[in-house]
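In response to reviewer comment 3 from the previous cycle, which asked for concrete evidence that the modeling workflow produces usable outputs, we include below a single protein chain processed end to end. The sequence was submitted unchanged, and the resulting structure tokens are shown without manual editing.
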Amino acid sequence: MSSNDGVPTRQRAVRTFANEFNDSTYTFKESDDDRAPVFQLLRTGEKANRVFFIGTLTQKRDVSKDEDDEYWQGRIVDPTGTFFVYAGQYQPEAEAVLREVEAPAYLAVVGKPRTYENDEGDIITSIRPESINVVDAEQRDRWVAETAEKTLNRIEDFDSDTKYIEKAREVYGEDLSEYLEDVTEALTSLKGKDENREPGKETNTQAGESESEAENDTSSSESGEGSLEEFEDEINPDAAEGEEPPGETDGGQTQIAEASSEN
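The workflow returned the following structure tokens.
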């Protein structure tokens, strides 16, 4: 964990497609410090304490079992699968977006990976959002293109001897053909798109869900030129690493698991 004068600094958010994210179930810390960040080890050998993705919100619902509190689940799809996002009282801004936005809508999410093992022994992945913003189709397409490039770069580097890649080979094995297919599918989804897109024309074959097109005028920030790294820096607030909101313990993860298992 990097720091200046003892103050933790945030990690760079990693771009990953939903399929790889959901398959990446191994988590670890790099120190015994209680405030040390928890990392997810991606299948392609990258460590991720924070992730950045853009997809289509297809469904949202309040899954809280407490009538006095809200706990929102969002299903957000990309060309390869589905991200599950959960926001409650300790993520008030993200919670407000999920409460107010109507599906379908393109959402840009920066957040922390979470995993939970259910009673059947399955590892469930989800994201606790730091920020959620409504964006447009151009920003979504740029994210798909850049994430495909970064995923391909990680696949090409997978024969390196870094400790994270070695651990990924040990935990997950060496076959990355599925994620290479994801890159191809994602880039193919960008080809042949008309400028005047109609809602509901794309299909997420991996997730079995419709990736309906959101209206282009729903963006909450300028699409402009520049990389999505600049966009991520703009929309995401500073966040101290390793800090958990008061009271957010395994109980919250249990709720996530129970909610997910209902689907």
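Confidence is low (pLDDT under 50) at residues 194-227, 234-263. We consider this sufficient to address the reviewer's concern, and the full set will be provided in the supplementary archive.
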